[in-house]
């Protein structure tokens, strides 16, 4: 059964704390790995939160770091126990981007740049289905349906009555022109996009073709920010076979600055709605 505890965030917080303890001890990941007779990659995966952490791992690491305060050990052990629980997304089975879903579920705000498509959190079911079917042509119908259900479930963060996700989307004009599914699907999708953009916590800007060269030419990315100061911001880069998560402050800052430039080069909110509305009308003809 899925838990209200977010295991992804628990693993991340625990990993950050274990890294802090290692650095206080003045040890490298390689030295810790040698002491515990494990691979250095295991220590790295534990610290970056990409791997489940057992209570035994915590106990062994606390021993290496000579943590004497039992309250700290107990707190870390509890976090390890929580990190092995299941989030709501686990009920859907194997999901390739489950780490991202875990972060998105707990994020306070999300800034997204999309160069080709309407972002997942603002997609209609028909658009999402056509998109998955076209992007993954060898995927079974059952898998397509599962991915669409997961996407719709993720969208509950946007419509939540309490603490909804603050979403800012910069959408390249190309996304309005690329026909996904059919003209009818596109018209409904763009009308939905306009409706969602009127929510007080959702901002949608269109980056017009006239902007020319811009900082987003390297592709899609998202910046996730969290309420808890202990959780650093994350830049998410989606890949075909694997995804990349950037957490180092200089990397996050660089993408944040790029995003500010994208917002500045985009149409304002009202202009963006007008462009989207005109594109929707064109699909009705």
Write the layout of secondary structure elements.
Layout: H1 7-25, H2 29-36, H3 40-47, H4 55-64, H5 70-83, H6 98-106, E1 109-114, H7 125-135, H8 141-154, H9 156-159, E2 166-172, H10 174-177, H11 183-197, E3 202-207, E4 221-225, E5 234-237, E6 244-246, H12 249-265, H13 269-284
Parallel strand pairs: 1-2, 2-3
Antiparallel strand pairs: 1-4, 4-5, 5-6
Helix pairs in contact: 1-5, 2-3, 4-5, 7-8, 11-13
Brief synopsis:
With 285 residues, this protein is of the alpha/beta class. It has helices at residues 7-25, 29-36, 40-47, 55-64, 70-83, 98-106, 125-135, 141-154, 156-159, 174-177, 183-197, 249-265, 269-284, and strands spanning 109-114, 166-172, 202-207, 221-225, 234-237, 244-246.
Please explain how this structure is put together.
With 285 residues, the protein is of the alpha/beta class. It has 13 helices and six strands. Helix 2 packs across helix 3 (40-47), helix 4 (55-64) runs antiparallel to helix 5 and helix 7 packs across helix 8 (141-154). The model has no long low-confidence stretch (mean pLDDT 88). Residues 18-72 form the HTH cro/C1-type domain. This is Helix-turn-helix transcriptional regulator. It holds the Pfam family HTH_31.
């Amino acid at each position: 059964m899925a838990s209200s505890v977010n295991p992804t965030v628990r693993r991340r917080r625990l990993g950050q704390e274990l890294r802090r303890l290692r650095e206080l001890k003045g040890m490298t990941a390689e030295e810790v790995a040698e002491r515990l007779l494990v691979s250095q990659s295991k220590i790295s995966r534990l610290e970056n939160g990409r791997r489940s952490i057992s209570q035994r791992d915590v106990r062994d690491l606390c021993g290496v770091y000579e943590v004497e305060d039992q309250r700290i050990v107990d707190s870390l052990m509890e976090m390890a126990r929580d990190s092995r629980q299941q989030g709501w997304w686990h009920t859907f089975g194997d999901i390739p981007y489950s780490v991202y879903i875990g972060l998105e579920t707990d994020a306070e705000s999300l800034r997204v740049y999309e160069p080709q498509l309407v972002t997942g959190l603002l997609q209609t079911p028909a658009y999402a289905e056509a998109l998955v079917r076209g992007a993954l042509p060898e995927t079974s119908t059952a898998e397509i349906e599962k991915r669409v259900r997961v996407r719709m479930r993720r969208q509950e963060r946007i419509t939540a009555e309490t603490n909804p996700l603050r979403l800012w989307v910069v959408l390249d004009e190309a996304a309005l022109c690329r026909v996904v599914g059919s003209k009818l699907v596109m018209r409904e999708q763009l009308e939905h996009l306009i409706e969602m953009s009127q929510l007080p916590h959702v901002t949608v800007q269109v980056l017009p073709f006239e902007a020319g060269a811009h900082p987003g030419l390297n592709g899609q990315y998202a910046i996730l920010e969290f309420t808890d100061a202990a959780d650093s911001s994350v830049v998410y880069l989606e890949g075909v076979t694997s995804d990349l998560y950037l957490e180092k402050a200089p990397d996050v800052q660089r993408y944040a600055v790029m995003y500010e430039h994208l917002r500045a080069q985009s149409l304002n909110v009202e202009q963006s709605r007008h462009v989207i509305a005109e594109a929707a009308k064109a699909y009705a003809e």
